[in-house]
């Protein structure tokens, strides 16, 4: 059997733990084995095939792995809970000034204060939430 077939079998064998464990390192080794199979198909010797396998695998581990892990650890930029409220619009329910008031924010009634001490917002007026402090929304 030709050596390129053995390398392809190695690539498939390295793909199995990739599917079972979802560890991207196995994919990098499988790609290295695929590159070695290509070198073998072009007539390279066994030593060169092994060097291609090691070189491609190490290059992928050094260059691609850190980027892949950074992207996996980062996660989506989805804000939830009170972190999602700044920037939202609300409707004033009771007069809002520097001392307090009430707004309707995302279907819920919240206590609110005007961010600027001289500002006053009347019922029905639309305001924007700037910050949440405890259970109080600061609005402009």
Tell me what the structure shows.
Helix 1 packs antiparallel against helix 2 and helix 2 runs antiparallel to helix 3. This protein is of the alpha+beta class and 140 residues long. The longest helix has 19 residues, at 3-21. The radius of gyration is 30 Å and the shape is rod-shaped. Strand 2 (102-105) and strand 3 form a beta hairpin. It has a 5-stranded mixed β-barrel. It has 4 helices and 5 strands.
Query: Could you tell me the strand content as a percent range?
Result: 15-25%
What is the helix/strand order?
Answer: HHHHEEEEE
Oligomer: single chain
Low-confidence stretches: none
Short description:
The chain is an alpha+beta fold. It has 4 helices and 5 strands; from the N terminus they run ααααβββββ.
List the helices and strands and how they pair.
Elements (H helix, E strand, L loop, with lengths): L2 H19 L2 H18 L4 H18 L1 H10 L14 E6 L7 E4 L2 E7 L11 E8 L2 E4 L1
Parallel strand pairs: 3-5
Antiparallel strand pairs: 1-2, 1-4, 2-3, 4-5
